[in-house]
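Hello,

Our lab assistant flagged a job as stuck in the queue for most of the afternoon. It eventually completed. Since we weren't sure the result was trustworthy after the delay, we are filing this so someone can double-check. Below is the sequence as submitted and the structure that was eventually returned. Let us know if re-running is recommended.
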Amino acid sequence: MSNTEKLRVDKYLWSIRVFKTRSQAAEACDGGKVKLNGNNVKAAKPVAIGDNFEIKTEGRKWVIQVTGLLANRVAYSEAVKYYVDNTPEEDKTAPKAVAAVFHTGKRQSKIGRPTKKDRRSIEGFMEGDTGEE
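-- returned structure --
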């Protein structure tokens, strides 16, 4: 990449693999999830070496410093050479995800409303039916 060429923030964050797609990176910029030196930044802003970004993604929070400009997406092992991760340890190990059940809307088994079978046994118990006749 030549020195005269400008590299957009969204393209840089996509290429170093902070975001899966470039449109996700652009949405994060527009949504105020990406800050450059403490200020919100637009997706089209040029990136310079030495810039400090604070990024909030779904999985975790990032605090990175730009050490090189990378325009094309490369393997993760290569991408890590273009930034320094200054993220505090507690943000790196943020709770990965609450149980997947909370996001699907499905009920965990044996929690919540009783099943039909459970309800019949409860009704039988409440009526004093021992099941023996």
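-- support follow-up --
The delay was a queue issue, not a problem with the job. The result is valid. The CA atoms of residues 64 and 85 lie 5 Å apart. The helical segments are 9-15, 22-30, 76-79, 89-92, 101-104, 116-126.
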